[in-house]
Records
---
Amino acid sequence: MKTTNTVLSQWTAIGLSMLVAGATLPALADDSAAAVKPEKTYTGTVVSVNPQEHTLKLRGFLFSKTFNLGDNCTYTFVDKDKGALGDVHPGQKMEVSYQDAHGVLVAGRVAQQPMREEGAVKAIDPAQHTLTLRYGVMEKQFQLPDDCAVTLRGGKSGTLADIQPGNHVTVTYEMPNDQATAREIAQTSATFTGELTAIDLGQKTLKARSLLDTKKFVMGNDCAVVINGKPDGKLSDLKPTEELVLSYNDINGVNIVDRIAPANETSKPVAVAASKTANE
């Protein structure tokens, strides 16, 4: 009889333990779900960053948000995968991954998003430190800070003197104080110097011959013909046998030229005010 009672007591204890455990597990699951909020993302331009308070304010299309930067927050940038809070500054475009805990936004990842425009250089004004870029029917003016990087074909470093009106470039920029400011200008065209041997005005093609090679070129829509330092010339302004410097890109065997200038002419940057300005 004692044995039977003992067994019943043991099974009763086991049953109660299972009931208690069954009631506790959902509660633990609820607590865990409450602790880990699903991540959200927000993209905007940096308005301000406070390293002391570990806060970051971004302005999006319609409104702004302020984020608390978590202790383990990671930072990535256009030019490097691993950065720090000290690399963040106003004008950068950032995507923030964050959690919303009772209205408090806690950032876990801050990643810079590149802002780029590609087109033809309409004008460079060294005195005003500006570059005007034309793309399609639009134009955009960029400020040129002293530390603006210039990258040439093959990844070589260059200077602003290597950028001429008519060159096809890609400008990477930021927006401090709502002013488009160039951080890098990439000019990737090849250069060919040779004597003009033929022009087809109807087809907008020309041929030039160097000592070892003859190339045929097709004018792009934004091709600049530089005459007397100004990039508004025409093919008909070029003279037979004239030595030319042509900037071009080889697209599947077709040489598309974006700038033509006489070899003996010193190009002078021309300041031209943009008539239309693109939005950010």
---
Amino acid sequence: MGGSGFIGYHLAKKSIEKGWKVTSISTNKVKKLRHIKKVKYVHFDISKKKSLKKITSLNFNYVVNLGGYVNHKDITKTYNSHYIGCKNLVDFFLKKKLNAFVQMGSSVEYGKIKSPQVESLNSNPVSLKSTYGKAKLLSTNYLLQLYKTKNFPVTILRLYLAYGPKQDLNRLIPIVINSCIENKEFPCSDGKQTRDFVHVDDVVDAIFKTLRCKQARGKILNIGSGKPQKIKDIINKIKEISKSGIPLFGKIKLRKDEILNIYPNISLAKKTINWKPKISFNTGLKKTIKSYYDIKH
């Protein structure tokens, strides 16, 4: 699910390289930039239960749910895609014999829980302000309940901020890279907040390790670098590598309820699936900037 998206593309690409059969399910058709020849592309909306009939005849060993509406300002579509869609998927696959179901969760599920955030500390959906956060946490709770009652083979990977080549221009790093490559002035906050970024290749590695690890079933695992960085430092680093771009710090005000420091403790992922990020931020950033530069030239 979400096979036409950023992480979905990288996961499908790696799966094909491993010789796996891959079916990508998404609401929208895949962009030319992310099209992979050997992948079977199926298009429908998972929030509409009857539409899952399209995959009744297909067999699956593993399911990775990366699906969800990207524009979180649309409350209805966000809730339906991230919660109702997940619930429909799970109800469908309960009747199948899966080896593993990986749900891509989000750090937003922790709400205002202080960093470094650990998996044992869970917030209440009612306390979360964003519809996206509520939908993700409701999905997590639903899935874990099914693990307890029906032994559904689920693992929730609670993702922090992924970045890398071929990401859409609606996230911080690609927005800044694009502005710097074009040597534009661009508004940003004062950049004092810290965030955790993890390269998409490391995310894909975590997914593969989770699929193969029976000890991961019924668990929430944080997936991030565990090394928070100031947003201002990241923007300046991109500017330095690109040798262009004019960030206008302080032009965008932080929300009153914005949490300044968000980053995970990743020790449980290290222990459970023997995973830790291999790509340093410097290396990953240089590769990512080069990939966007290559597209433009």
---
Amino acid sequence: MTEHSAGNGAVAGEPGDRSSVDDRPFLELRNVTRVFGHGKKAVTAVDNVSLTLRHKEIVTIVGESGSGKSTLARLVLRLLNPTSGTISLDGKDVTKLRGAALKPYWREVQAVFQDPFASFNQFFTVRRVLTRSLGLLANVVERKAETLMRESLEHVGLSPDDVLDKWPHQLSGGQRQRVMIARALMMRPRILVADEATSMLDASLRANILNVLSDLRRDYQMTILFITHDIGQACYISDRVLVMSKGVVVEEGPTDDVIFNPKNEYTQRLLADVPKLHAV
């Protein structure tokens, strides 16, 4: 992978090492469709999409608002049920799991969303936010919970003593997003879905969050599904890119192929909006 400009504030650097990716698929979506509404008012948000995630891989779904990328993220997270198609983890079909049966899946697949402030209960301190999230883990004693919280906060570049007893409004946007990443990290998931996780941050913080995500792949052997409207960020962080438009994947492939040899006109238009995207 060559070095690239990250676009919109991310700095050039080394993306993940593609050679470290394990080519065995372990999460697969096959011909997944999601329709909202019925009859003449029906809207197909995701249309017959197939997606494979491999161990230690960073895959980016990129597209404009309304392209279906966030709906696809929620299908992967099993926060939405597909209208048709299947979702499997380690070869096991999880499409029809509901309620408590999804807890083991959610330990494996965690999320960081767009608005870190909305992700907090405003009446909880950081300590309580993190402690409550441990409900997905069985038999976590108080001492181990404290260790998990501190290790996870430190890994995303926050001092536990500085943030654990603070309220959400006392943190910056970048700090709140790092706390949300730490909350997900405490589960030690195999997959992290980052849905527009940098879009509400100013340009100076975006590269920092992208670097945190890359570190998680390296240090925890984590797979990351990164959702963004910014193809420059996709270039910076990804092994593979899928481009979505109107619910359909219009182009996909290794990052360099998609970025420097785009075949679809929609992809070409997205790239035209990135002023400094170039190979070094």
---
Amino acid sequence: MTARGCYSETFPALAAAPVRHAFIGRVPGVEVQVDRAEALARLDAHHRTEREALGLGGHFFALGEQTHGCEVAVVDARTPSPVPTVDGLITADPTVCLGVYVADCCAVYLVDPERRVIALLHSGRKGSELGIAAVAIATLRERFGSDPARLIVQLSPCIRPPHYEVDFAALVRAQCAAAGVREIHDCGTCTAAAADRYYSYRTARGRTGRMLALLALAEPTGH
């Protein structure tokens, strides 16, 4: 829990990478048993405060439409947001903060420390089965020359068995490994099993808030 009231966490695997990141969970005291748009509106001020606390308040905030597909887009500070039809965002622009909203789905963080390019994916059951992680890794390789063996991949909390019948986090891990990624980290946390920290779409039957995954490149510290 942060001093600002939100449950927020970071991941050790990304702490040493040239990025700023967070996974913002439940915000106590905010009524979110409403539809998605209204829930996000009620959480917006809290999410803005968290971005500012990370030093990302002045960054362009890039989002995708999140249609449960496998499309990804390369974005910069001139890209209109939210980007239609996409569930994954890639950037090499240090003035951009990537964002993904989830409530049981997985936020997948991908970092190439050498090429200084990052990706953030919304990967639930459908997106995972469609191979969004593999699509993103292929795009990083084709557009930026990223070597999959040099990537750092981190999976966020998401719903998992026995609370859900499909272990889509395992699908993401397998796809990343098959694409040549060697450093794959999964926090292993189930959102449905920790209602005090996370929102769960399945547990709340669709009327709930959203966690917010954030990822941005850090400014170079030297030459």
